[in-house]
């Protein structure tokens, strides 16, 4: 019918099943098909969602790369170096948009299926001939719960994917510019943030990047916190908001990461500069 919404169809479906009960598979299938069609129609069109994703990630990209704000995570890297890496960063933008669109699409399909499963589970429990015991309002609220929460969940996914995008851009710059180590930063002090205990414990720790030039040259060593590659990276876990600042030169490293050879080289460079 023209102007029908998911909720109005759900209201009619619950009323019909309450009155007649599960008297035939055909009755149930008819309502499931109508509910699925209206559920899909209710959601923001996929093309519009992808447009919103592209706008959101492009805004992050312009802020971090075009305007250079990502430098706060890479104090030892020049703007020129970052611009040289720009083609790889732009590819990451496109990749992240596609991955996020796919994730949101899967979440939508799962929410619709969960809604249909709840309706089918309830409807098939009503005996033929109907029931006077059904609380129609409570039943409708329970059935539509997953679909009603979907806009909130999609916003959470978008925010989380934004953090992951920021982290991946930063990691590309770190590895392409020869970073030596990373200082982990957790938001565990932020009120209301559901931090992971092991991430809180990493706050302020310095993780070494495997195979970096200073390790290969014997100028630095693995510290007590180990390799970055041996832990889940910043932003990788679901809803993780941790971030890293990357160390690119010997003078940025803590003393306990330098070898005697490294200390000598650093002294030589300082003396030459002074």
Provide a descriptive summary of the structure in words.
The chain has 2 domains: 1-177, no CATH class; 179-274, no CATH class. Helices cover 59% and strands 5% of the residues. It is built from 10 helices and 3 strands, in the order αααααααβαβαβα. The protein has a 3-stranded antiparallel sheet, with helices on one face.
Number of strands: 3
Total of domains: 2
Mean pLDDT: 92
Q: Spans of 5+ residues with little confidence (pLDDT < 50)?
A: none
Taking the alpha carbons of the first and last residues, their distance comes to: 82 Å
Strand order in the largest sheet: 2-1-3
How large a portion of the residues is in β-strands, by DSSP E? Answer: under 5%
As a percent range, the share of helical residues equals: 55-70%
Number of helices: 10
Write down the secondary-structure element order: HHHHHHHEHEHEH
How many strands, what sense, and barrel or not for the largest sheet?
A: 3 strands, antiparallel
Shape: elongated
CA-based gyration radius = 27 Å
**Helix- and strand-based class?**
mainly alpha
Give me the secondary-structure topology.
Blueprint: H1 6-20, H2 25-42, H3 46-66, H4 79-84, H5 86-123, H6 136-143, H7 145-176, E1 181-185, H8 197-202, E2 206-208, H9 213-216, E3 243-247, H10 260-273
Antiparallel strand pairs: 1-2, 1-3
Q: Can you give keywords for this protein?
A:
10 helices, three-stranded antiparallel sheet, 3 strands, single chain, 5% strand, mainly alpha, 274 residues, 2 domains
């Amino acid at each position: 019918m023209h102007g029908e919404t998911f909720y109005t169809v759900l209201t009619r479906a619950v009323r019909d099943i309450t009155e007649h009960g599960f008297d035939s598979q055909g009755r149930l299938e008819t309502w499931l098909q109508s509910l699925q069609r209206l559920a899909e129609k209710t959601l923001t069109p996929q093309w519009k969602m992808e447009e919103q994703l592209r706008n959101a990630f492009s805004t992050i990209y312009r802020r971090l790369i075009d305007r250079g704000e990502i430098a706060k995570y890479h104090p030892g890297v020049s703007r020129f170096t970052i611009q040289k890496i720009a083609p790889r960063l732009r590819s990451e933008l496109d990749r992240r948009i596609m991955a996020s669109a796919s994730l949101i699409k899967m979440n939508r399909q799962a929410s619709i299926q969960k809604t249909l499963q709840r309706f089918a589970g309830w409807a098939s429990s009503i005996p033929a001939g109907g029931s006077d015991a059904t609380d129609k309002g409570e039943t409708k609220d329970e059935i539509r719960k997953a679909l009603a929460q979907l806009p909130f969940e999609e916003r959470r996914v978008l925010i989380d994917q934004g953090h992951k995008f920021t982290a991946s851009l930063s990691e590309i710059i770190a590895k392409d510019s020869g970073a030596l180590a990373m200082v982990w930063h957790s938001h565990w002090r932020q009120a209301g943030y559901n931090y992971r205990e092991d991430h809180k414990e990493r706050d302020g720790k310095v993780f070494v990047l495997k195979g970096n030039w200073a390790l290969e040259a014997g100028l630095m060593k693995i510290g007590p916190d180990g390799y970055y590659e041996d832990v889940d990276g910043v932003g990788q876990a679901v809803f993780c908001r941790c971030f890293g600042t990357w160390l690119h030169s010997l003078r940025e490293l803590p003393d306990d990461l330098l070898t005697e050879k490294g200390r000598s080289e650093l002294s030589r460079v300082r003396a030459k500069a002074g």
